[in-house]
Amino acid sequence: MSGTSEGPTPATELNRPVVTESEILAASGAESSEPVEAVEPVESAESLEPVEPLEPAGSAELAAPHSPAPPSYRSVFTAAPLAMAVVDREGLVTGANAAFADLLGRDQDSLAGAVAADLVDLASDARTWHAYRELLRGRRARLRCTRRLKHPEGHALWVRVTVAPLPPDDGGVLVSVADISDHRALQARLRHLRMHDPVTRLPNRTLFFERLTTALEAESYAESGTGRIGVCYLDLDGFKAVNDTLGHRVGDQLLAAVADRLTRCAQDAGRARAGIPLVARLGGDEFALLVEDSTGTEQLADLAESLLDAIQEPFDVSGRRLKVSASIGVVERHAAGTTPTALMQAADTTLYWAKADGKARWTLFDPERNASRVTRQALASSLRPAIDRGEFALEYQPLVGMDDDRVHGVEALIRWHHPRFGTLTPNRFISLAEEDGSIVPLGRWVLRTACRQARDWQTRYPDEPPIFVSVNVAVRQVWDSDLVADVADTLEETGLPPHLLQLELTESAVMGSSGRPLQALKALSDMGVRIAIDDFGTGYSNLAYLSRLPVSVLKLDGSFVRGFQIEDRAAKGSPADEVIVEAMVQLAHRLGLTVTAECVETSAQATRLRRIGCDTGQGWLYSRPVPPDRISELLGTPGVQAGVGNP
Fold this sequence. Notes:
Blueprint (H helix, E strand, L loop, with lengths): L17 E9 L17 H4 L23 H9 L3 E5 L5 E4 L1 H7 L11 H4 L6 H11 L3 E11 L5 E10 L7 E7 L1 H15 L9 H11 L2 H4 L6 E10 L1 H8 L1 H25 L5 E6 L2 E7 L4 H16 L2 E3 L2 E3 L2 E10 L5 H17 L5 E3 L2 H23 L2 E10 L5 E12 L3 E3 L5 H7 L2 H22 L7 E5 L2 H6 L2 H12 L6 E6 H4 L5 H12 L2 E7 L6 H4 L6 E4 L1 H5 L12 H16 L3 E4 L5 H10 L3 E2 L10 H7 L13
Parallel strand pairs: 12-13, 15-17, 17-18, 18-19, 19-20, 20-21, 21-22
Antiparallel strand pairs: 1-4, 2-3, 2-6, 4-5, 5-6, 7-9, 7-12, 8-9, 10-11, 14-15, 14-22, 15-16
Helix pairs in contact: 9-10, 10-11, 15-17, 17-19
């Protein structure tokens, strides 16, 4: 049997009968409480056949051929189109009609004295054999079962066997056999149509999951095989464009051609292994290959590579030469403990990774990457409720003057105290907040909390120069909310002077700003709020455009500072980085901007930045991000010593 389809029963299986279903009635006429054994599944229409009530003994029953009987009954028995045989209490045939002999391909005279159970295979399973023996002893009312017999001419013969008792005076039982081969063939044909895709003639999603479910059952791999299973989940890249431009007829022809190539790849792989992978079309332009008893990820990787190579070759369809590619998600694991749903979810996730990584490739399932995805989904779903539950908090990192070592300001950095994942830094959730829009309410909370804290410091230390607070702003906050109104309301509510608030936007967000974002930045600047470009030097670095923006501060990206020569004389810095930083500082000063250097970690870096003319520094040399009370300890300190704010 092909690994990609169902077909006729293999010839090797015709050497043995098959038990498909049995009905056993007790002698009282009630259905037996014993469970029905089904060695091979059957269609529900057959298994749900009603049980006919037992006819009372009397004139309607047939007498044994060797007993005296009215000629009319013998004539009926002989001429009946239904195959029948009379069997004595010992289980031997005492008489059979011509229909019985013809159906089984036997000589009618040779049937006398034959063991009836052998003729119709009633001894192939213990339960049916026991019920048959009980019926011969008069303890059962009737037995019905379906069997696949081997005809002497070599073909398979599906029959329904019914065994019913004869009157006590006659003794024995009547065995009737009905040929249901055509019915079974029709059932098989209908099943094939129901389980196969009409476009590609491949197994469809229903059959694929049926095979997958069977393969994952413990008895399928407990005693033999590798106990492993693999799936290649394939999706065509750009197939929608073919359908949209050339029509569904051409699209269907392309799918059929793809199916042929996948089938050939599966057959080639099967020659080198124990079995041929099942190829199925799951829907649209999605296909799957099921590898039972896989030997490891290398086998699935080789198969995926061969599939990619086959698909990348051009297709000749309706006089057109079409070229498509495919993305494949590959999963291979132990079958034990795996469910069809879990396996296909993993395959679907891996297919998504292959698409996201650039398409036209295969990607192997990575549990760690999947765990990260699951965590990301969990965070995204709990972001908005976390704002209401008060799970967010702010920490502050000092911005220290390079010339006086005093705290001039602080940057507010958000932390999420997640009940499950612990304390999370912004890189774990800010992108999620920007995607789903929760960055807007979250940004408002950060702005109010930071301004309120800055105003508190100003009130508590009136004799000290007030420090400003720097708040990061996402581009979506500018587009999706009235940022200018939010800032104005917050300043009015907290009483913080506008010049003590600094808003940081990344260089890629600010450069190229036009329309509403640019108008918002200008309005904020006119209000007295400081605008800073964060991570300057890593994005567009459009100096000409910089002169037209309402920016007052440049924050140099930490990658430049890390390139400075450090205290370890064996380690060499990058002279080019120093030259670039010095040039940017001089340019910023000529434009009337102040410069903050990020990621200052050593005193040697601070000394170089001071010599270059940098205005303020930020980094672990001075302090890590700390709670507000630690910042309060730094205020009023004549000079910030290295690491004084660190735990």
